[in-house]
């Protein structure tokens, strides 16, 4: 205040400047210089000593004038060294990892937190939170399973995972013909076995069975044999257009014919009206 370098006092005649210990007031009535200042017959030569006005008092950062001389201070992130002049950067990462969840990197006067892959830094700039990659569109072609810091893609049956996220069709026919007895046709996510003319696909969807045909002149009155399979149980039913004839040949075998009896030297044991079922 009042243009004084050190101390300003209010008097009846206006502001009056004075200096701290070991300083004297310059002839300009405002500036303070050290007592070691040497005056010559010419203009007085100043020898600055312990004042912030000269070379910032030798301080690296902030300088304050006090009754005992200059007092240096440092900004946040720096610490004053034993020489009471120099400021040195504080490595915040050395203490408790700077409070960072994952990675702490020291910078001049400060520090920075960062996260491992698969995590994001929250607004407090310290905490790391897992990224749910499965919440992103098209993260995986088929299925996505999230995990801490990562995720995994899975594919439908009949597909194989390519890279990290893409599912490609498995060509089952390229491996041992898909297990088919005759032919194999691949399709997206599946395949199908085929059979040659005169054969049809077995219920196991892999083998081929012969298609039975009746030739004209070799067949007696028309008969129909119908078979079906439920689980491991296969049932067949024989239906005749005319009377069905049943012949028991032994305890473990019998014959069924339509229209004309089959005697084979024996007498038919039982006649049914039109059909007979066997399992």
UniProtKB/TrEMBL annotation:
- All disulfide bonds of the chain are 134-144
Q: Which GO terms describe its molecular function?
A: calcium ion binding
Q: Per the UniProt entry, what are the Gene Ontology biological process annotations, in alphabetical order?
A: signal transduction
Task: State the UniProt keywords alphabetically.
Answer: Calcium, Disulfide bond, EGF-like domain, Glycoprotein, Repeat, Secreted, Signal
Q: What is its main location?
A: secreted
Gene3D superfamilies, per database record: Laminin
Cellular component GO terms held in the UniProt record: cell surface; extracellular space
Q: Which Pfam families match?
A: EGF_CA, FXa_inhibition
- Subcellular location per the Swiss-Prot or TrEMBL entry: Secreted
Q: Which residues cross the membrane?
A: none
All copies of the EGF-like domain together span 89-129, 130-168, 169-209
Give the protein's recorded name: EGF-like domain-containing protein
Q: Which organism is it from?
A: Pleuronectes platessa (European plaice)
């Amino acid at each position: 205040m009042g243009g004084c370098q050190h101390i300003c006092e209010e008097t009846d005649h206006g502001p009056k400047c004075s200096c701290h210990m070991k300083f004297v007031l310059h002839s300009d009535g405002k500036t303070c210089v050290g007592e070691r200042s040497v005056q010559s017959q010419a203009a007085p030569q100043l020898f600055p000593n312990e004042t912030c006005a000269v070379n910032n008092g030798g301080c690296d950062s902030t300088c304050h004038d006090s009754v005992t001389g200059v007092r240096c201070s440092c900004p946040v992130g720096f610490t004053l060294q034993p020489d009471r002049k120099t400021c040195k950067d504080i490595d915040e990462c050395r203490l408790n990892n700077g409070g960072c969840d994952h990675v702490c990197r020291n910078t001049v006067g400060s520090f920075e937190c960062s996260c491992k892959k698969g995590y994001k830094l929250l607004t407090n700039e310290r905490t790391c939170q897992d990224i749910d990659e499965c919440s992103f569109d098209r993260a995986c072609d088929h299925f996505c399973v999230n995990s801490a810091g990562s995720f995994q893609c899975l594919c439908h049956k009949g597909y194989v995972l390519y890279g990290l996220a893409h599912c490609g069709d498995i060509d089952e026919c390229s491996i041992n013909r898909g297990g088919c007895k005759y032919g194999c046709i691949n399709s997206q996510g599946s395949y199908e076995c085929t059979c040659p003319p005169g054969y049809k696909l077995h219920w196991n969807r892999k083998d081929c069975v012969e298609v039975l045909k009746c030739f004209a002149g070799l067949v007696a009155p028309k008969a129909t044999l119908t078979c079906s399979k439920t689980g491991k149980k296969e049932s067949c039913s024989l239906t005749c257009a005319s009377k069905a004839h049943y012949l028991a040949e032994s305890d473990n075998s019998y014959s069924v014919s339509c229209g004309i009896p089959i005697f084979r030297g024996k007498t038919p044991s039982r006649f049914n009206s039109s059909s007979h079922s066997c399992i």
